[in-house]
Amino acid sequence: MSTPTTTPLAQLTGTYTIDPSHTRIGFVARHAMVTKVRGAFNEFEGTAVFDGADPAATAVRVVITATSIDTRNAQRDEHLRSNDFLAMETFPEITFVSTAFRQTGETTFDLTGDLTIKGVTNPVTIPFDYEGASTDPFGNPRVGFEGAVTINRKDYGVTWNAALETGGVLVSDKITLEFEVSAIRTA
């Protein structure tokens, strides 16, 4: 495997497919006002088309299988799949479709798009760091990106909660979405 390089973003023109075995799409929520619960979605697919000559024309689409939610606690995961939270029988997918790309620095950019959760679509802007490019042992050109954005789950109709005896609530309204992406350039 070659050493990752910081190839300028403008030189990354191509179509890329997210590698799910080397990518993490996760989230963090406050629990009981005192700790954080981390989770991830284990099934998703995505593509990105990047034009170094016209970065604004970048197009990204990600589809997440909502039932693949995993917080390492089966009982909690079943509750998250229920109508109290994500209503996954009715809304089996979470999607992101980009609407704008803006380079903010040599290795940073903002990706704006429409995020749809539980049938509700809202615009979000995710700041990303470009982590580099390399060729893997199988000859695949790869790029890596990391980003995160905080959303309010109530903006997506995810409103269930429980009051705590000591004050506060069981689940925070603010949820941080985390993206650690490895993508392979396709021929």
From TrEMBL:
Gene3D superfamilies: Lipid/polyisoprenoid-binding, YceI-like (2.40.128.110)
Residues in Lipid/polyisoprenoid-binding YceI-like domain copies: 15-184
InterPro entries per record: Lipid/polyisoprenoid-bd_YceI, TTHA0802/YceI-like_sf
Superkingdom, natural source: Bacteria
Signal sequence region: none
Family per similarity comment: Belongs to the UPF0312 family.
Protein's recorded name: Polyisoprenoid-binding protein YceI
